[in-house]
Amino acid sequence: MKKLVLATTVLFGLALGASTSASAADSCGYFAFAGAFKSFAAANRQANRVGGAAWGLDSSNSPNAGKGLWVVALGPGSRSQANRWRNQYKARGVRSAYVANRCFFGE
């Protein structure tokens, strides 16, 4: 499942000009977020609609880790790149899009 999420992240990231530094290992840096969802399916639908990929929040250093949530995000990248991604999300109708520095941990 994580490999599918990683591959989706890289493909959508390339389409939106994201960094391709994501790997199966830890992915740390600034991310633009476009929502949190209770299921992978819901997060994946949002990612398909606005770009990015579904990331399992439980495998991160987020204060909301452990709640079983999935987030839609682009990253990791620099803070300025993440701000550009956030602006792209807002242009696509995601009014609550935001930027945060996070680590997502691989297997």
Could you characterize the architecture of this molecule?
- The chain is α+β, with helices and mostly antiparallel strands.
- It is 36% helix and 28% strand.
- It has three helices and four strands.
- The protein has helices spanning 2-15, 40-50, 79-91; strands at residues 27-37, 53-56, 70-77, 98-104.
- The protein has a four-stranded antiparallel sheet with strand order 2-3-1-4, with helices on both faces.
- The longest helix is centred in the first third of the chain and has 14 residues, at 2-15.
In terms of topology, how is this protein built?
Blueprint (H helix, E strand, L loop, with lengths): L1 H14 L11 E11 L2 H11 L2 E4 L13 E8 L1 H13 L6 E7 L3
Label this structure with key terms:
107 residues; alpha+beta; 3 helices; disordered N terminus
What percent strand?
Answer: 25-35%
Residue runs with pLDDT of under 50 for 5 or more positions: 1-15, 18-23
How many distinct helices? 3
Would you tell me the overall average pLDDT? 85
Helix share bin: 25-40%
Q: Order of strands across the widest beta sheet?
A: 2-3-1-4
Overall 3D shape: globular
- Rg, Cα atoms, Å: 12 Å
* Count of individual beta strands: 4
The biggest beta sheet is recorded as:
4 strands, antiparallel
How far is the N terminus from the C terminus? Answer: 11 Å
Q: Structural class given helices, strands, pairing? A: alpha+beta
Could you state the order of secondary-structure elements as H and E? HEHEEHE
Short structural summary:
With 107 residues, the chain is α+β, with helices and mostly antiparallel strands.
